[in-house]
Amino acid sequence: MTANQRVVSWSVLVDTSAQSYEAPFRDLDALDLANLQVVVRVRELLKNGLTDPEKLELAKSRLAETEASLDAAGVDVDWYGSQRFCRGRKTRARRKIRQFRSKKTT
Description:
The protein contains five helices and no strands. The longest helix is centred in the last third of the chain and has 29 residues, at 77-105. By secondary structure, the protein is an all-alpha fold. The two termini are 26 Å apart. The chain is elongated.
């Protein structure tokens, strides 16, 4: 072994932050999860621009009702929306670690 080389162990390579996983959506009931999906979808529709005035008003009305329902249930819509992206990144990181480990053992 030369002076620039060093022994690398698995513990040095593992990203431990990717292994710890919080499941923020686990505590929500089915109705709250469905309502969160409605909020995300309707917000995307509004962001992408609905041109039909009737559909636009219907979407805004449904969004307001659904957000009010979630607020009454104590669900922070914006926080859960942000967790959606964090969860995706952590899930992809864990998948890569599992793939690496399976290649290492085969």
